[in-house]
Amino acid sequence: MEMQSPGGSAGLSHPLFGGALSAVLPHSATDTSELREIPDNQEVFAHAHTDQSLIVELVEYQGEVADQDAARYHFEDIAGSNKALEPGAFEVTGVVSLPKSELSLADCSSAWMLTGTQCVSKFNEEARNTVTLHLGLFRLPQFSTDVLITFNDPQSISPDSSSAASAGTHREPWTVQDFQRLLQTLTLHNPGLFG
Asked: Are 163 and 154 in contact (CB under 8 A)?
């Protein structure tokens, strides 16, 4: 048996993008690239026992979007790909600036955490589920890159959804604290990652 420190993860850093970045991931995070094809600019982790997921994504730096608007810009972009763009299907409940003194990724020009909700359907099912989305954004204009970290936390799973069957075993879902620790521990080891 592996010893676990209180609070689950022992705080071990997990390599991302071949070790170019690293971060402390929450407990029970499984790398989904072993299950399905993931684009090169993404690392996707799923909770082993819940429907929660984490996506670390490298996207093009949007120079025309002001820092304080950038998290919302990406949130709406995600809403579009989740087909959650109709009025009322998505809502931003808060955006905070992350103080650089608390971050390992000191190279960013600014960092933000957005919280919001989206009504999404999985696999084009009719049933729509409300997902709380926590979005971390690190802006790296010097590398023409925004690093986007999304924590999908489904709130209410409609009983008609294929996910409903697995929702009984919650076994320690991830918390916002887990997500904040990931954001705070995100570290850049090799800027060559950004080409």
From this structure: yes
- Give the Cα separation of 44 and 117 in Å (integer): 20
Q: What is the DSSP string of 98-162?
A: PPGGG-S-TT-SEEEEEEEEEEE-GGG-S--EEEEEEEEEEEEGGGTEEEEEEEEEEEE--TTST
Q: For residue 124, name the pLDDT band (cuts at 50, 70, 90).
A: low
Burial class (CB in 10 A: 0-12, 13-18, 19+), 4: exposed
Determine the Cα–Cα distance for residues 142 and 23; give it in Å rounded to an integer: 21
φ and ψ at 66, to 5 degrees?
Answer: -65, 150
Please give the Cα distance from 140 to 108 (Å, whole number).
5
Residue partners of 8: CB distance under 8 A and separation at least 6: 26, 27, 172, 178
User: What CA–CA distance (Å, rounded) separates 190 from 186?
Assistant: 12
pTM check: above 0.90: no
Q: What is the pLDDT of residues 13-71, one digit of tens each?
A: 999 999 999 999 999 999 998 888 999 999 999 998 888 999 999 999 999 999 999 99
Quote the CA–CA distance of 173 and 31 in Å, as a whole number: 16
| Range in 29-33, 95-99, 117-121, 142-146 the model is least confident about | 117-121
Which residues face 57 on adjacent strands? 42, 148
pLDDT of residue 89 exceeding 70, the answer is: yes
